[in-house]
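Please review this one:
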Amino acid sequence: MKKAIIVNGITDMNKGDQALVWESYRIIQDTGLYDDIKVISLGDTPEEYEALCGQTIKKGMPVIQNLLKHPRRGKHHKNQLQKEGLGYLLFQVKNGVSDYLHLSRLKNIIHDDEKIKKSFTEREVETIKAFREVDTVFVKGGGFLHAHGEKTAPYVMWYFLYYMNLAKHLGKELVLLPNSYGPFEGLTVKKQLINGLGKADLLLAREQVSSNALGNLLNREIPVVPDLGFYLEMQPKEVGFEILAKYGFTKEDKIVGMTVRPWRFPGSENPEELFDRYLSSLKDLIVHLNNQGLKVALFNQSIGPNAHEDDRNAIERLIEVCDNKNTNLFTWVNENPTCDILKAVYANMYFFVGTRFHSLIFSMTSEVPSISIAYGGNKGVGIMEEFDLGEYVVKIDDVTTDKLTALADKALANYDEIRMKLANKLPHLEEMRLETIKLIQNAVQS
């Protein structure tokens, strides 16, 4: 039997990422090829480690120390959601340069036990030895391999590709589970991707637009299979409703679930203005839905590990925009359940407005009609197109009140048709999961 490591880290605070790691672990198990599967941790401080890994450890998955610290080093400025101050950026640049030099050196000393013991902690040495002994490095599903031309793009791409480059340096099998890819804008980005992924044993995309983007870059065919989050087995629907009942909802209520997120609008010259427009448009949509007798609930799809990934920051801003303490336009279901329980909560929704990508997957696989506010490359658009619902998506950069309310009205008018499309899609998912398993088996069996 073989050994596997799942990278780029577990993030229990982000329920979409949590679902991807849990389902990555399960699908690797179901290949029948591996009896030793480890998950790379995340977290720059003991508190973050517990928050990011605690639920997964309780789930029974072995977690090993991350080698890559985030340049923020556990310092996250809540009031800098769009732009970060110069001092904070210089702090991150210093750490980034130090990490680049330190971890680039690892490739040269990785087989020298004495040198790695002098340069790394005891837990990091255990991780390094695990990489020396592993057969296959699996990259969890997700959507992080993209760049929008930011000045930081060269470092960010090195950071995300690090474990993949390490795997191929050691001659290990490399499998990228279903991911979104692109765009690839920025200095050295394409070259790094070609060098890092060109020799991968298997590359999987979770939508056709991503397959085309990466396939054209690498000049190879990229199979398209569903995002692993589609296969998440939720807790009973009643478990989800118990959480809603705590906030005063009844089973007679038609609840519109909603996820929002901080977003920096990469490449934009006016990110604060665009973020304010996004929140203002959501306020107008909430009022519009309330006027139709619908109740709106906001959910925490992600609460970290940094301010930019903490949806509570965006929700608190929306509370101010709506003056919600006085108007009660929406209810904030402020909880931190595991991904399988959160999906059970979403299953009780009548309709869903999702900015967070996996909140849409959770809702749509529960046959809840949804509209998407797409961000971060191709994933938001791609997922709706895969359901033949591409007309129900608006990019976050383009959000206005008129566009958002028109999209919601269109979806509600075609409610039964959307539910039918969702219901027709779901039976094929298990077939696609078996196909994914076969693709993995064919790529790594020797």
Observations:
- The first strand starts at residue 2 and ends at 7.
- The CA atoms of residues 151 and 186 lie 7 Å apart.
- The mean pLDDT is 91.
